[in-house]
Automatic annotation (TrEMBL):
Protein name: Protein NATD1
Annotated N-acetyltransferase domain residues: 19-109
InterPro entries given in the database record: Acyl_CoA_acyltransferase (IPR016181), Gcn5-rel_NAT (IPR045057), GNAT_YJDJ (IPR031165)
Species of origin: Mesocricetus auratus
PROSITE patterns: GNAT_YJDJ
Entry's family note: Belongs to the NATD1 family.
One Pfam family recorded for the sequence: Acetyltransf_CG
Length: 110
């Protein structure tokens, strides 16, 4: 007889899906159905410049690599849209240091 997996076990093994809401200028990952969310917030600070401002993952979900998925999605968006990025968020600064891909580095604003 199969046992139902606990939500936390399910989410660790399931794929993390990042959603991009351009209107609200945020990337998010739904956690535990749709009640909890991890988010990365950004703002346009110029015509082609975005400020990646803040990443937040609820305490119960930290340490699972969720913020990495948000950071990658945001930086890939910057690359795909050919934008420049200002990194206010300390986590995204750390992510770029750990993943110094040329396509990310060449789009950073001081």
């Amino acid at each position: 007889m199969a046992h139902a997996a606990l939500p936390s076990a399910l989410e660790q093994s399931g794929p993390i899906r990042v959603e991009h809401d351009r209107q609200r200028r945020q990337f998010s990952v739904r956690l535990n159905g749709c009640h909890d969310r991890a988010v990365l917030l950004y703002e346009y600070v110029g015509k082609r410049i975005v400020d990646l401002q803040h990443t937040e993952v609820p305490d119960a979900y930290r340490g699972r690599g969720i913020a990495k998925h948000l950071a990658k999605a945001a930086l890939d968006f910057v690359v795909e849209e050919d934008l420049k990025a200002h990194l206010t968020c300390w986590y995204i600064q750390k992510y770029v240091k750990e993943n110094p891909l040329p396509q990310y580095l060449e789009r950073l604003q001081p």
